[in-house]
């Protein structure tokens, strides 16, 4: 009776020794910096309109090209102290002007329609104020399309009119 | 009955005591050291830098020595939560941080997980090895801007 008990105690002791777990720990602190940034991408840098021969009314002429693909990429802060909202704005630099004759067409003759989440549905160009083309309350990649239209008028003199338009993205 | 207790229980207790002291007698030793206590991932454009490398590599030294029968060991990494930004109360899933490690074996690549041990190295016998770990952060436009932090516990254990 003594020997089996002693043998069992020995086995238990050895097992206990083998099961004595040993470990060491160290701590690593990680920091990831994410800064506010914005990016605007467009599928084309110009659009054109072609007048219908001898317009008797004021037809709305769409741009000759397919709709512009517009992508707004933004990382903003949602800090309770300074929450940021992403805005896409559009503003004309002046009036449509034919440099050969000096004739002009009011910039309001150009309108736009937009599709995509967060994009404003439609609007008219202005050189005085930057119109809101889109707005978002979160960081991310926001995609949409914009199509421009030209409201023709029989009173507009023939010519080639040009205008620069600026799209800008930022936060307020 | 009393006779049995004196002749068997006492020796058994002695054996248990000796077994408890067996580790130092075998000269078992475990050492773990990191070359740095912190790493940072700088801000970067998600388009040009979709994977942001940490500002430095991490050198990890693991040492498991001692006599007696070979015993398995492992090095684990446990993130103590997701990346957290206190000001905006925003989080980024810690699984967006991965690492590559060499030499392999015993080191291996992996992905951090919140409150879950991830094995970064393992072996079945004594080891005295220095590994190099390179951490990268998966960048994304959708993150909220800010500074995110979290700690990671490295544990070298022998069972």
Provide an overview of this structure.
The complex is a heterodimer of chains A (172) and B (159). Chain A has 172 residues and is mostly beta strands. Chain A has one domain: Immunoglobulin-like. Helices cover 10% and strands 44% of the residues of chain A. In chain A, the strands form three sheets. In chain A, strands 2, 3, 4, 8, 9 and 11 form a six-stranded antiparallel β-sheet that branches. A three-stranded antiparallel β-sheet of chain A has the order 10-5-12, with no helix packed on it. In chain A, strand 6 and strand 7 form a beta hairpin. Chain A is elongated and about 90 Å long. The N terminus of chain A is likely disordered. By secondary structure, chain B is α+β, with helices and mostly antiparallel strands. Chain B has a single domain, classed as Sandwich (Immunoglobulin-like), CATH 2.60.40. Chain B contains two helices and twelve strands, in the order ααββββββββββββ. In chain B, the strands form three sheets. In chain B, strands 1, 3, 4, 8, 9 and 11 form a six-stranded antiparallel β-sheet that branches. Chain B has a three-stranded antiparallel β-sheet with strand order 10-5-12, with no helix packed on it. A two-stranded antiparallel sheet of chain B has the order 6-7. Chain B starts with a helix and ends with a strand. Classes of the chains: A mainly beta (172), B alpha+beta (159). Chains A and B meet through helix 1, strand 1 and strand 4 of A and helix 1, strand 1, strand 2 and strand 12 of B.
Number of strands of chain A: 12
What fraction of the residues of chain B are assigned to beta strands by DSSP?
over 45%
Give the beta-strand count of chain B: 12
Q: Give start-end ranges of low-pLDDT stretches of chain B.
A: 1-10, 12-25
Mean pLDDT of chain B, as a whole number?
86
- CATH class (first level) name of chain B: Mainly Beta
> What's the total helix number of chain B?
2
**What is the radius of gyration of chain B computed over CA atoms, rounded to a whole number of angstroms?**
22 Å
Encode the helix/strand succession of chain A as letters: HEEEEEEEEEEEE
CATH architecture of chain B: Sandwich
Q: Identify the overall geometry of chain A.
A: elongated
Q: Which architecture of chain A does the CATH hierarchy give at level 2?
A: Sandwich
Query: N-to-C SSE series of chain B?
Result: HHEEEEEEEEEEEE
Taking the sheet with the most strands of chain A, its summary is: 6 strands, antiparallel
CATH domain class name of chain A: Mainly Beta
